[in-house]
Amino acid sequence: MEQPERDLVIVVDLGAQYAQMIARRVREAHVYSEIVPRSMPFAEILAKGPKAIILSGGPASVHVDGAPSVDPALYESDLPIFGICYGAQLLARDLGGVVAKTGRGEYGRTDLTVGTTGPLFREQPTSQPVWMSHFDTITEAPADATVFASTGDTPAAAFGDPERRIYGVQFHPEVAHTEHGQDMLKAFLFDVAECRPTWTNVSIIEEAVAEIRAQVGTARVLCGLSGGVDSAVAAALVHKAIGDQLTCVFVDTGLSRKGEAEQVEETFRRQFEVDLVHVKAGDRFLGALDDIVEPERKRKIIGELFIRVFEEVAREYDAAGFLVQGTLYPDIVESGGGENAVIKSHHNVGGLPDDMEFELVEPLRHLFKDEVRAVGEELGLPEEIVWRQPFPGPGLGVRIIGAITPERVAILQEADAIVVEEIRRAGLYREIWQSFAVLPAVRTVGVQGDDRTYAYPIVLRAVTSDDAMTADWARLPYDVLERISSRVINEVPGVNRVAYDITSKPPGTIEWE
Ligand code: XMP
Q1: Can you tell me the distance from the alpha carbon of 115 to that of 124, in angstroms, rounded to the nearest whole number?
Q2: Domains 8-192 and 399-500 share a fold
Q3: How close is the Cα of 368 to the center of ligand 1, in Å?
Q4: Hey, which of 127, 277, 352, 392 has its CA 20 to 30 A from 90?
């Protein structure tokens, strides 16, 4: 159901990753935005009640057969349209302009000269840097449009028809390198399309709460907490909506970081007064992992036992119940759009058995990760949870190389806690993707005091990354390395050496197993 309080801007995805970036920028301007596939018929788009349409960039050429295009009915509507890069080329092609194959594309930072100040460029410098990435060139603007700006190679780099409220720019206003890009986007949203900036953390929460209530009624809802940000924010939102109809389950595998179980208890049981089932299953997990050293076997054992334990709790709740999932908006866009299909489907989540059918509650399915964090802060979740670095499902099980014993878990938890503390103290925790300790399966000789030691080394791993697909080892300052090394060796019994892993991904992976 559309909420009357917020305006909607539709971003038509014409390829590549640009659409998500544009939608995020629109939302940063406090206007709600959704991405739709270009195949969506215009009638369906119209049924969503948009205030404006943005056509994204994409890698294709308008000249190739089967090039992405939009439903011509769009042009006959009176909705404001903003075409970006490929989107602008489409406007030019479809509305009487010319897109030429000049053989000279523009890539990267380019100087834009604003000639006629149209609505997009008000109060901006007449010469400004913009980010370009195109091969074909718009040489003539659409028939009724005025050219506002040009670059050395693109005569019609920005054009518009104020009467019909159609604008196009060859460059990318959504990337940070286009210095005034966000100003242009805002000018389109507010001055041209007359959107209202009402999409705020508070309105996001209000809307999610109303939706959750409408979906679950008086039924019971179950939510697995992992200690990570997504499940925590999802749980806090659902709790705000339905209070004690929610039960959270924290399966304590004994392989979480130091203090994590206490943090979950403190936050959810004491601060939020959530009905929390804390399953202390450490002994069962360590028992099942006894003598297991092969990484894939470890993962399988941990994964299967996790499901079994969760299932034992879940069995107490009817098959008619609901299960909360922390699915985010990019997951939905990347799996092909159709978010209604996702909401309605009944899943057996995470391998739960066939006879347990939960309906999913996905309160984060409209949100990007940065919005999830902002909502988490607004709901009063602690910084440690809201900004927690990613942590693998099998936990410390894949950071203890070789046999997993209670003693070795304790060593790694202590060392890891020091690593995190020092990275935080250096102010690096948020900018580093992941920073943690690994416990290898060797021992080395050292000397402490007058005594020879024969103990474990700790490997420090810290990487920068955007998405975990690739990563670079973090250039940590020497003094931070020095503090971590000396604290780990002095404070963690059983450790006499610290090494720093300087492998990027590829060829290494982020985790050691
Ligand atoms: P790798 O080690 O493959 O890790 O470079 C990439 C990212 O995935 C995380 N990771 C996991 N997350 N279950 C998870 O939920 C797993 O089994 C798992 N293994 C690795 C890892 O921490 C990194 O962020």
Answers
A1: 12
A2: no
A3: 20
A4: 127
